[in-house]
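The protein record passed on for reference:
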Amino acid sequence: MKPSMFATTVLFALVAMISPVVGQTAGASQAYDYKIIATKDQNIGGWTLSSIENNPTINDNGHIGFVGSVQTGGEALFLWDERQNEVLSVAFNGTYGSAAINNSDQVATCFSATINGNSVSEIRRYSGPNSFAAVNEAGNAQDPQVPGTFIYPYGSFMPQVAISSIGTVVFGAVNHVG
């Protein structure tokens, strides 16, 4: 089976992580173990991967967070921990932005959906399968009791996020226009 573009990206990330010094070329006598992390049509936790999205992320432990599409039409957030891939969440009514992982294997992402004609986004920090904290929310829904007043503090989020070693999530937000 031909490795996906994601596997190639991850393999290069692993080589960079295990180089002795940043910017220094590893000596010819050092051996590296290349691993394919995920491939199209792979079954992960009962879900068949149909594609792997851009921007996988790796922590200092070599664990990887990534987003992929599943054959049933949804998107999923995954964590690879050097032994196996684990499904953190599957969504059929929205999309995930990029994944970011810290050394505690917390994975942050931006989840976006359209509900009743309104866009809604949430910055999430996952600590395990289906276990997340909502860090912040955005959307264009207005308060029906107070016309012209938005329910959420931001109009939308940028799809890329970052997460610190203590779980602080950094994200870009867009204000409401008007």
About this structure: Helices lie at 5-18. The chain has one helix and 13 strands.
